[in-house]
Amino acid sequence: MDTKLFSYDIVAEDPTTHARAGVFHTAHGDIETPIFMPVGTKATVKGLLPQTLEQLGAQIILANTYHLSMRPGSELIDNLGGLHDFMQWHHPILTDSGGFQVFSHGEFFKLSDEGVRFRAVDYDGSWVSWTPEDNMAIAEQLGSDICMQLDQCPGYPAERSFVERAVELSSMWADRCYKAHTRPDQALFGIVQGGMHLDLRLRSLAHLESCGDFPGYGIGGYSVGEDHETMFETLEPLVSEHMPKAKPRYLMGVGNPTTLVRAVAAGVDMFDCVLPTRTARMGTAFSSEGRLNLKNARFTKDAGPLDSACTCPVCTGGYTRAYIHHLVNQKEMLGGILLSMHNIYFLLDLMRRARKAIIAGTYGAFVNDWMASEGAADF
Questions:
Q1: Is 312 annotated as a binding residue?
Q2: Is 315 annotated as a binding-site member?
Q3: pTM of this prediction?
Q4: Per-domain residue ranges for the chain?
Q5: Active-site residue flag, 96
Q6: Which residues participate directly in catalysis (predicted)?
């Protein structure tokens, strides 16, 4: 990795919380934090053109190493110019390791110190073997700006011994990923695991810090079945007291507005989640009034915008709640597209406003105002 390409500058720190505003520099542009990153699992944020994502203000999007390695294959993407050209998104891209998807295959995977062997049950059913070195080779062929180490993500609840073994494997694999990763224009992030056990989280973090100079850290193994209060019992002290200050901190797979607001206060910089687009396809919208189910009959004759406080292209473009209610109930694809646009913009704008408050030194008041608002009812 070329350390000149990847650095993190802290622009401001809030005086009453652990929130900070920063800039992470990459080969395809700068990322202003805190930031929400829309998820484009199979090299597309479902239903949205890259130009639309730019219009909404997206700075970086995600793609999934597992799914892209299965179809169309990382070698093909590499031969076609890499992921940026393949999907026509010429801004930063983060690819996760695919580990979460592999370990969600239930009984169809086998773990060893060497790596993981799994059955691609959601594709052709073939058995596939991955070592950390294989995973890094795929990531380098995809050509994302940020890639993640191969790790094991234990669900919740889980026996402590199982979580401890996941930390052991993830740490071992982090060493090997760090040594195997050679692409200079791609940053490799380590991932902190440990479930809901703070001591295991600290053990994981200490190992990552000892094995190499990672330019950033993912925080994995949250939002895997636990309630949000349980998550914050360990997340808050981990981030605010123990994680390196000069590196970006990426909370993986978390995307409801209230959790983003609270996690920024703890010192988290980056987020991703399929929630805004997945719930949009089910007819659900984030709003300043809380979460809205546009399938509900109460919207049948509602001539208002989705959210009168929102300035997204949907809310300012004349699309009424009644129209979107109609689209959703008739299963028209435009309903999911419009709601996806709104939901992604909602989270991007929330992080823009959070950043502004941090720079102004008023993020503590921002959190209090949010928690007292109707918008906090987003679960």
A1: yes
A2: yes
A3: 0.97
A4: 7-273, 275-368
A5: yes
A6: 96 (proton acceptor), 272 (nucleophile)
Give DSSP secondary structure letters for 70-130. Answer: HTT-HHHHHHTT-HHHHHT--S-EEEE-SHHHHHTSTTSEEE-SS-EEEE-TTTT--EEEE
Q: What is the pLDDT of residues 242-268, one digit of tens each?
A: 999 999 999 999 999 999 999 999 999
What DSSP character marks residue 62? E
Distance CA 197, CA 220 (A): 13
C-alpha 257/C-alpha 261 separation (Å) is 6
Per-residue pLDDT band for 47 (boundaries 50, 70, 90) equals very high
Cα–Cα distance, 316 to 56 (Å, whole number): 13
Whether the predicted pLDDT of 57 surpasses 90:
yes
Query: What class has domain 7-273?
Result: alpha beta
pLDDT of the residue at 99 = 84
Residue 40 is given by DSSP the state: -
Q: Which of 14, 96, 145, 307 is catalytic?
A: 96
Q: For 302-311, what is the mean pLDDT?
A: 98
Catalytic residue among 14, 269, 272, 378: 272
151 is in an annotated binding site: yes
Phi, psi (deg, nearest 5) at residue 210: -85, -25
Q: What is the distance of C-alpha 94 from the center of its chain?
A: 9
Residue 9 known to be catalytic: no
- Give the mean pLDDT of the chain: 96
The answer to whether the CB of 140 falls within 8 A of the CB of 181 is yes
Q: Quick one: pLDDT at residue 104?
A: 81
